[in-house]
Description:
It is built from ten helices and ten strands. By secondary structure, it is an alpha/beta fold. Adenosine-2'-5'-diphosphate binds at residues 28, 203-208, 226, 228, 244-248, 251, 254-255. Adenosine-2'-5'-diphosphate is lined by residues 28, 203-208, 226, 228, 244-248, 251, 254-255.
Amino acid sequence: MTPHNNPLSISSGYLLNNGILIPRLGYGTYKTGSPEECAAAVSEAIATGYRLIDCAASYGNEKSVGEALRASGLPRCDLFVCSKVANTERGYDSTLRAFERTLDDLGLTYLDLYLIHWPVTPAQSPDWRNINDKTWQALERLMSEGAVRSIGVSNFTLPYLEPLLLKARRLPVVNQLEYNPGTTQPETVGFCEARNIRIEAWSPLGRQRIFDNETLRRIAEAHGRTVAQVCLRWEMQNGVIPIPKSSNPDRIRQNADIFDFELTAAEMRTIDLLPPFGGSGLAPETITF
Ligand code: A2P
């Protein structure tokens, strides 16, 4: 996968492996607060120009997100809406039911992207492979019925992605992973890139722990930017789609203002090589919900 060094704008995109265009930058809705705060933040993001809106059934805010999508007045085809199957809903029939609820809550007639939020692990169920396969088959069915335009996975590290691909009839278009300076999951990312599975970055700002890093601060200063902007730009120049969350209007705009500067190859390499320091500690094996 070729990283794009000169993205054009917030609404320009990458072609996914199914020929569908996805924006280069998204807006994340995890922990966007009360229903009113969530709707206000999503409205602000859309007004700023974000077109990829990322949500999940487990965030419990799909109704508020849907409200903001409608209030935008934008034609549906101008938006790229993604949601995810909750861990409690994995399996064939339950995923199909969960999808109907998600669509209802969002008030939409289709999704642009639907993801399995987390894989089932052997510790959660001896039948983990089969449940992951069945969940994927439900997504494939939704795809073939035209209810979703593309399907993918999230947090599928190699022990889960490889078995899934053995049975899958369709390739996931994306794998949404934790990805931030110091947390780059190189094995999974390399495997996905070799198969043209695009990486989306959750927690692209490393839960704010990276803001004090001296190396990032120095690079940010050299460009007259914030550390957050440097992180997002680094992700984009690596061909990864960051989906930053912010509830603050100034920061929502700041995070979108990353299209008119470029990190040098040396700066990219320096950030690529930063040691782990901003990770959440979450992995399929540590998830208990
Ligand atoms: P807030 O909503 O108050 O802006 P991550 O996506 O890595 O998990 O980080 C999300 C956290 O980072 C949120 O708590 C958010 O808080 C904060 N955040 C988002 N954008 C910025 C920014 N540009 N500068 C500082 N903090 C930010």
